[in-house]
Amino acid sequence: MTVLDSRPDIPGDPEGRVIAPIEASTALISEAGVSMAPVHDLGAGRGPFWLDDWLRANATDVLAWRRHIHAHPELSRHEFATTEMVMSLLRSVGLKPWVLPTGTGVVCDIGSGERCVALRADMDALPLTEATGLPYASKNDGAAHMCGHDAHTAILLGAARALAGAPELPGRVRLIFQPAEEVMPGGALDMIAAGAMEGVERIYGLHCDPRLEVGKVGLREGPLTSAADLIELRLTSPGGHTSRPHLTADLVHALGTVITSLPAVLSRRVDPRSGTVLVWGAVHAGQAANAVPQDGVLRGTLRTADHEVWTMLEPLVASSVESLLAPTGVGFSLDYRRGVPPVVSDPESHALMRAGVEAALGEAAVAGTEQSSGGEDFGWYLEHVQGAFARLGVWPGEGPMADIHRPTFTLDERSLLCGVRTLVHTALATLA
């Protein structure tokens, strides 16, 4: 997850107008008139029959939806056109979706009954300029789907429309099309505040992984991503001449003390098995070489994979900073912003998702995956219900691995159909 500030001038339509209608026949043809062929369904024939039939007839649509969203990216909390597109496609098969009070984000139930399982996809793009050269590359300057959220949305749309055509479901499946995953606080909190978790017993999600070959799904019981908090420390000093540091408070020396000593203090106060790490990303102070500056700022991220450790970090950082700066005489203010909890897949949800992957793509599709220090606001849902999160392979199996959050990120579109099958089978396994 990337932490960004919301800005009023970012791409997106604040009036919520609908983007151009999408048709598979046109979305699979480039502006140069070059046809882009549909992709092979790696899970074809695994059933159930209604899912095989739906994908056989509609796989081209899933690709078209993804390419259309990719070409029209919208930044966090400005996903107005994407929201309208999702609403239209769900309504067209008789479903009754509703939009969050914030104006972006969609919730929709399929089926009936007391039991309910949720499937989540995020919809927002990154503030990057795309450099892929794709025929359906971003048309919005300064916005691009370089994290795969366009794929996540198309996958959940495919799962939704397939499930809507099922002869019978053993319960309800709740679709959560989430806005604003790329900012903090993220859209998961908007979803929860709007009641999207009410009545849900488990929740599942997927995220594109360019280090994993298409046809594979990375699963891990326990911590998958880390909590990610922001620290901003502002220091103040009377200032003065560097020839007389004893007559003032040496602000730059104080900054250096915190920069080097706070990570060391935390490494001795926190269990090293928790994967806790503090890394500074920005430091600013002063202009002249012979002047002690009057103010300075230090910013960094503090991450941990341990939920219990996460709950104790804020007071520990506050007391440690106070102790470190007390001898220096500088003033300070600490802004500690809690980001996202770690994503932790509980054993039962992990087992159910594994069963879903095996049913969807075969036992060989199950792959292990490493714990990441990155943040993902899916963790907020797991504060309320149990669930599991998985990494969807999008690497073609040859050539370079184009990492996410880079202007050159691309994915193998066979992964879209793998994702549809995985979500459908995971929901069925949970409700069985």
TrEMBL record:
Pfam families registered for this protein in UniProt: Peptidase_M20
Alphabetical list of InterPro entries matching this protein: Amidohydrolase (IPR017439), Bact_exopeptidase_dim_dom (IPR036264), Peptidase_M20 (IPR002933)
Gene3D superfamilies: 3.30.70.360, Zn peptidases
Classification via SUPFAM superfamilies: Bacterial exopeptidase dimerisation domain, Zn-dependent exopeptidases
Protein name (record): Amidohydrolase
Species classification: Bacteria, Bacillati, Actinomycetota, Actinomycetes, Pseudonocardiales
